[in-house]
Amino acid sequence: MPSGRTLPPDATAIPAAIRARLAAALPREPLLRNGHLLAVSSLVSTVLGAVFWVFATHWYDARTVGLNYATVSAATLLSTIGQLNLSDFLVRFLPAAGRHTRRLVLACYAAGIGFSVLAAVAFLALVPVVAPRLDFLLDPVTAVFFVTYTAGYAVFVLQDGALTGVRSPGWVVNENLIFAVVKIVLLAAGAALALFAGILISWAGALVVALLVANWFLLRRAVPRHEREAPDAERPPRLVGYAVADYAGSLFRMAAYSLMPLLVLNAMGAEYSAYFLIAWAVGCIPYMLVANMGSSLIVESARDPRQLNPHTVRVLRHSALAMAAAAALIIVVAPTLLSFFGPEYERHGTTLLRLLALSALPNTLVSLAVDVARVRRRLRLIVGIQLTLCALVLGLSQVLLPRLGLAGAGVAWLTAECLLALYLVVRRSQWLPPRPADSFAPPPDKEK
Predict the structure, then answer these.
(1) Residues 319, 10, 41, 71: what is their CA dihedral angle, to the nearest 10 degrees?
(2) Which residues, including other chains, have CB under 8 Å from residue 159's CB and lie 6 or more apart?
(3) Terminal CA-to-CA distance of the chain, rounded, Å?
(4) Among candidates 258, 251, 256, which has minimal Cα distance to 73?
(5) How far apart are CA 4 and CA 2, in angstroms?
(6) How many Å apart are CA 321 and CA 80, to the nearest integer?
(7) Is the CB of residue 162 less than 8 Å from the CB of residue 94?
(8) How many Å separate Cα 215 from the centre of its chain?
């Protein structure tokens, strides 16, 4: 590891003043430094995304915002499904892809585009049944736009994984910053021109700019550099089997996240669903930050598998301290934070937000265990942890929401994460290699 406090080569694209501040604040070793850069990217996206919708609600009427938001949300969900979780696949296999790097990136792009187009076309066919108020999407021109945007957003997600896999996290920050800023500028232009589709146009225009800039850097600079410098290991076996298993696991986790609002809506009604969504948006931030650290763990361990054990311990300790501080902060400021949205949000959402903050502590271990399993290609463990989490969260929520109100959802998440974390501590030999020499040993037959 480098001894100086330097940033990766890609970080030179960040403006000088910001780069100087990051250089002073970030840890020395790439393992933690790159994880922090990815966390910065996520926070930038979250904050500027919130700013975008604040402007949208001021510049457009509620009906326009509602329809555009529903359209964007549908396209984003479809692209998430269509990209087959290949973003995580790229994070796992690009670090040691060597001369196969460009081919692997382009193959994942092609698969993500193809399946996203199929998902978008299937959704449009079902619009009259599942979302009749979005029937304006059935206009031929609008339909083409929707399908194209869905495929483009899949590439947008995949390029994050590719940039992370070739150790260019600074450019993940750059592209998300470009996307957010251009989106706001185009939103203002659309509002000035009184365009009904101004929100959609702003997202599409910003997406085009971000894709062009990020992929120019990725394919012209980052990939050639990586092909020269990365270890050129033999192509790992069973890539398709790994991708299928990892995708299955991601679908279970996505179901746990995506179905919770529906459970709240069905059990408690639309008003409580709104209270839930605000607390949920804040409470998920620590989860997102741990995932960023896990991506850095995967990249560095895939480059040097012998370091998986010490890297895991290092990231676990660092993330546990960070999550403890974050949980304490959220618990203290939860009422004040939610009061900005109104007294009802504070009254009904404070306990839920505090419980979600607490659940981030055991989730640190659960999330990192999945990432370690990805490095070791423990396919059953990847699926099993996420399937168990989904079943526990949704099952407990179904029982507890009618009895405890919104707090029931928080109790469900905290209980599920604690049970899984306890199991992983007791059975740590199943996922954590005891010695660096064993860190990339092929899984036994029973794990395949």
Answers:
(1) -140
(2) 175, 211, 214, 215, 218
(3) 33
(4) 258
(5) 6
(6) 31
(7) yes
(8) 19
DSSP codes joined into one string, 374-399:
HHHT-HHHHHHHHHHHHHHHHHHHHH
Residue 414 corresponds to which tokens in the numbers above? 């905290």
Q: Which residues of 17-56 are buried (b: 16+ CB within 10 A; e: fewer)?
A: eeeeebeeebeeebbbbbbbbbbbbbbbbbebbeebeebb
**For the whole model, what pTM was predicted?**
0.83
Q: Which residues contact 121 (CB under 8 A, 6 or more apart)?
A: 147
From first to last of its 448 residues, the chain has per-residue pLDDT tens of 333 333 344 444 445 555 555 455 555 678 888 888 999 888 888 888 888 877 887 888 877 887 887 788 888 889 989 999 999 999 999 998 888 899 999 999 999 999 999 999 999 999 898 778 788 888 888 899 999 999 999 999 999 999 999 999 999 999 999 999 999 999 999 888 877 778 888 999 999 999 999 999 999 999 999 998 866 554 555 688 899 999 999 999 988 988 888 888 888 887 888 788 888 888 988 999 999 999 999 999 988 888 999 999 999 999 999 999 999 999 999 999 888 888 888 999 999 999 999 999 999 999 999 999 999 999 999 999 999 999 999 999 999 999 999 999 999 999 999 999 999 999 988 898 876 544 444 555 444 4
> Residue 259's CB: how many other CB atoms inside 10 A?
14
Could you give phi then psi for residue 374, rounded to 5 degrees? -65, -45
The answer to whether 164 touches 298, Cβ cutoff 8 Å, is no
CB 155 within 8 A of CB 162: no
Here the tokens at position 175 are 């592209």
